[in-house]
Amino acid sequence: MANNIKYCLLTNDVETTSIWHNDLRDSTGYKVYKEGMPLLLNIYRKYNVKSTFYFTGHIAKLIPDIVKMVLKDGHEVGSHGLRHEKEFGFDVMSLDSQIEHLKESKKILEDIISDEVISFRAPALRTNEKTVRALLETGFKIDSSVASQRFDMFFSFGALKKLNWLLSPRLPYVSSIDNIFSYGKDGIIEVPLSATGLPYLGTTMRIFPIITSFQRRLLHYESLINKKPIVFDIHPNELIDETDEKRIINRRSSNFISYFVQDFLRSKLKSKNLGIRALDLYEKEISFFQKNNYRFCTIKDYCLENNLI
Questions:
Q1: Do residues 230 and 9 make contact, with C-beta atoms less than 8 angstroms apart?
Q2: Global pTM value
Q3: What are the tens digits of pLDDT across the range 208-246?
Q4: Does residue 139 come out as left (phi exceeding 0), alpha (psi in the -120 to 50 range) or beta?
Q5: Which residues contact 162 (CB under 8 A, 6 or more apart)?
Q6: Do the beta carbons of residue 17 and residue 28 sit within 8 Å?
Q7: Rounded CA gap, 154 and 162, in Å?
Q8: What count of Cα atoms within 13 Å lies in the side-chain half-sphere of residue 154?
Q9: Is residue 252 predicted with pLDDT exceeding 60?
Q10: Residues of 220-242 as b/e, b for ≥16 C-beta within 10 angstroms?
Q11: Separation CA 169–CA 263 (nearest Å)
């Protein structure tokens, strides 16, 4: 990296996903807006964190104020695609469909914030060999959809393409235009999410808080050696509690094994420590990096400060 600053990039995926019901629900989106986002923004104010929020076009169109509320504190608005349904994963869409989704989501967000949107994260981190071209053709400059050396992909959709994470570069890089998972000269700036086998993100933090405490230290030591930025991902829907509602786990696959692993088992695990308990765990992560003098900034500012864009 171009300087000796240690970076912690706290990122947020904002969508209408209900973790409790394993489904997309507009009612959950409103609950995220009224409960989850205020809690998240308050903790960021407390620690003077500047962060990147990736919004789906659907939630931005449904609740434009959920996008506007992050601007007052200097956070970056990025795109999380248009919709989060599994059939709209970027790993299964054609180039033209990806371009269409990116254009529409970008326009929705830019109309709300009256500024350019250049950062992207794919829904469920699903990408294919066409994604870089689609991003470049629609004016994006930065992606953060690759989780280098993450090894839990079989719990999510698009697992076979996600195997490429195992050999992807750990440090930020310019991707190949035909392969988001490898170096190139004419692709997008890729800022990989942090992982050490297990992903470093809100879900792991909630399910395995003790393991996560060791993981953050390991990532910290790595950063001291090679200046790799810490890139953490949380969803404000993790900070809401819907457990007072009768639970129906939505089945998204007709294949029993896929249903059991990706829907039933995954939903059971992901429902641990939701709401205020998640916020308390998250504050421990933020506090650790503050005490170790990390700079909290947006993905865009990180790339600017390190001459990547």
A1: yes
A2: 0.92
A3: 999 999 999 999 999 999 999 999 999 999 999 888 887
A4: left
A5: 125, 126, 147, 150, 153, 156
A6: yes
A7: 9
A8: 5
A9: no
A10: bebbeeebbbbbbbbbbbbbbbb
A11: 30
Q: Is 92 exposed, middle or buried (0-12, 13-18, 19+ CB in 10 A)?
A: middle
Q: What is the pLDDT of residues 132-150, one digit of tens each?
A: 999 999 999 999 999 999 9
Average pLDDT over residues 15-43: 95
Domains of the chain: 7-305 (3.20.20.370)
Distance (Å, rounded) from C-alpha 166 to C-alpha 187? 20
- Which tokens in the block code for residue 249? 């786990």
Which of these, 119, 105, 217, lies nearest to 172 by C-alpha position? 119
Q: Could you write out the three-class secondary structure of the chain?
A: CCCCCCEEEEEEEECCEECCCCEECHHHHHHHHHHHHHHHHHHHHHCCCCCEEEECHHHHHHCHHHHHHHHCCCCEEEECCCCCCHHHCCCCCCHHHHHHHHHHHHHHHHHHHCCCCCEECCHHHCCCCCHHHHHHHCCCCEECCCCCCECCHHHCCCHHHHHHHHHCCCCCEEEECCEEEEECCCCCEECCCCEEEEECEHHHHHHCHHHHHHHHHHHHHHHHHHCCCEEEEECHHHHCCCCCCCCCCCCCCCCHHHHHHHHHHHHHHHCCCCCHHHHHHHHHHHHHHHHCCCEECCHHHHHHHCCCC
Q: How far apart are CA 134 and CA 96, in angstroms?
A: 8
**What is the residue type of 125?**
L
Identify the band that residue 267 occupies on the pLDDT scale cut at 50, 70 and 90: low
Structure tokens belonging to residue 275 = 């709401």
Distance of CA 124 to the CA centre of its chain: 8
Distances from the Cα of 110 to the Cα of 38, 220, 272, angstroms: 22, 35, 35
Per-residue model confidence (pLDDT) at position 1: 47
